């Protein structure tokens, strides 16, 4: 093997040192490469050994045309020089410079026109998710170059030819269909069909011990790869999973008027997957638990599954066929996927109130970030792809759909759809920016889409909107809570006015600082005015005093479930702004729950009660409330006529149970001495009960955890439980050791495990003894961001702070921020987002004590 690498500054390459690209992929490097590289193709081979600790050997031939060779060709490869065996150009070994995670090929070697660079390397493991019996590549947002040399940016789309050498008894799946396989005594070699042009973050392969289910729908064959050991569970779920995919595909082909663009269609269910799903064309990945549902699955989980499947399928057009040019527009593909998913899922769930679903699944989460000091615009700046992970979050997943619905309302559904068709057609197999779409829409419409986009998309935060009621005149005023900006947001609102007996909806287009409601004088004296009542309006609403009092009394009597849902969301915001007392909110919830007949509202209320209970109440107040609450939840599942609602109540009970009687009951359920009629508890349910019992310090908790560990049939779930167990120990030193272990990146590789452990470590019942983890947990954040997947920093902070509500804890966070004035801005935002509840709780607790 020839090794001609030249390293460091002593290299002979003719490369001025100021030309060495910075680490990661800067916007500048990406733009320069996008300009000069065409017709890109990767011929890739990986040899994956059975043992997860042995290295994966790889080889890549990068074929491309250079439009001009005034710059060196810079490939990205994070593992660096020690992982490179050889580099050759047109078959001849060459010397290259390897620095800052790049392979720099001096321009002397390359020429205009066709070039082929061949590299033999050891693949980096960081984005290959290697487990004992399986592995999967996950390259979003720019992690392909952690594994193999490539141009790791979304607007250098390439065609991939992949060949894998794998252990004989393994399966393999990639973007392209399998086209050949050769078997030897030890190994299996599988070749995959060349892909369409796709971005690096969408290229993938998974291999290991998977079971494969096959089904045909509408003349297309689908494959599902999974590791579920419970055959009955597979049987119960499989048809629904295939049906949901087929339905989504058919709907999207019709809406876009473009046939599915990527040939074959498979998907892989991965245990403890980092995300709900990932849209690799031809090989979608899902978190197994979100797709293979237990018998006790709630209506929300079934809807969630349908939405996730439709979301990922929508990405085949929105994201995969037309891709953002740069990751600052990643929100576009996410909002379209969510938006289409909502349209697709609706007909499959005729019994569900979809307006209400849109409300409860988007508004609370969007507010959860947009109300904080850590909020940011939907469209952000991004200087380097190594920060791309920080683009993701509730602002793009939940606020953007609300904003997109406003755009559709403004343009009209048909014009909006036709604009999207034009955009997809024009940019297919290529890249486009948000501004490209704004232009398409602006050209087709007489509305000023550009100005609208400025307030909603290019700036962060939400309007503060107040009701102004003066005798017979009603107006809404809006102001910008951000100092010195003076934005106004144009939006469609549906105002609900009336009494619990009779209501009326008034459409209002909010424009400018003050919007007067015409014809309000003709309405006889209303009991309440709810600007969010129709489920559309977005902002921080201050109700007039009379309406607030009226709703705190009569909310459960409102007839329309969307109005009730909106009222709950609005009152919760009022609680956070200290205009509604937590005790009054909970009291209203206790009266409302027995009367509420919509599962989504019940979930919403139970979620808020849980939040109020653990965050905004003192321990004595919790103890005082617990008997009533437990009684109410038990009555709830007894009354419920379907298992999903029973399950909703049972899970809430499990979360808040505080009385001796309640805990004893839960223990009996776990021992299988007590049954809840109509509710079957599966392995994960029993595991959760065991953990909840342990965190409550029941006398024999160590035995319960041990016994639970022995009960597991599923090895993946068992391994997760074993990992989390020490976090539940009644011995403080064991818990401390668990926290210490999280400082080692190896113990954070399975992120959902680490998060579950960290969450229990900081459970409200352990808050006093776990405050000491806050500071070191925050000290780790930069490393967490550097070594983890995209949601990990936010989830880490949520798990670390979620159980705390003391002034001391709030002060620790503030002290950390004060001591780090130059902290990376996006991580600072994440801290401010995660700490918002803690800050408010500390304030509210102060004023209520
Ligand atoms: Zn997505």
Give a quick rundown of the structure.
The chain is an alpha+beta fold and 849 residues long.
Provide an overview of this structure.
- This protein is 43% helix and 18% strand.
- The chain is built from 28 helices and 29 strands.
- A hairpin with a 2-residue loop joins strand 5 and strand 6.
- The N terminus is likely disordered.
- The site of zinc ion (ZN) has 5 residues, from helix 4 and helix 5.
Task: Spell out the blueprint of helices and strands.
Elements: E1 6-7, H1 27-36, E2 37-47, E3 57-66, E4 73-76, E5 84-89, E6 92-93, E7 97-99, E8 102-105, E9 113-122, E10 134-136, E11 158-167, E12 171-174, E13 178-183, E14 187-192, E15 205-208, E16 211-217, E17 220-226, H2 231-256, E18 265-270, E19 277-278, E20 283-287, H3 288-291, H4 299-315, E21 322-324, H5 330-348, H6 354-370, H7 394-411, H8 413-427, E22 430-432, H9 434-444, H10 449-456, E23 464-470, E24 473-479, E25 491-498, E26 503-510, E27 514-516, E28 528-530, E29 540-542, H11 545-554, H12 561-576, H13 582-592, H14 599-615, H15 619-639, H16 643-656, H17 660-670, H18 683-695, H19 701-711, H20 715-724, H21 732-741, H22 751-761, H23 767-770, H24 774-779, H25 781-787, H26 792-801, H27 807-819, H28 825-848
Parallel strand pairs: 1-7, 2-11, 17-18, 18-20, 21-22, 23-29
Antiparallel strand pairs: 2-3, 3-9, 4-8, 5-6, 5-9, 7-8, 10-15, 11-14, 12-15, 13-14, 16-17, 19-20, 23-24, 24-27, 25-26, 25-28
Bound molecules: zinc ion.
Zinc ion binds at residues 279, 311, 315, 334, 337.
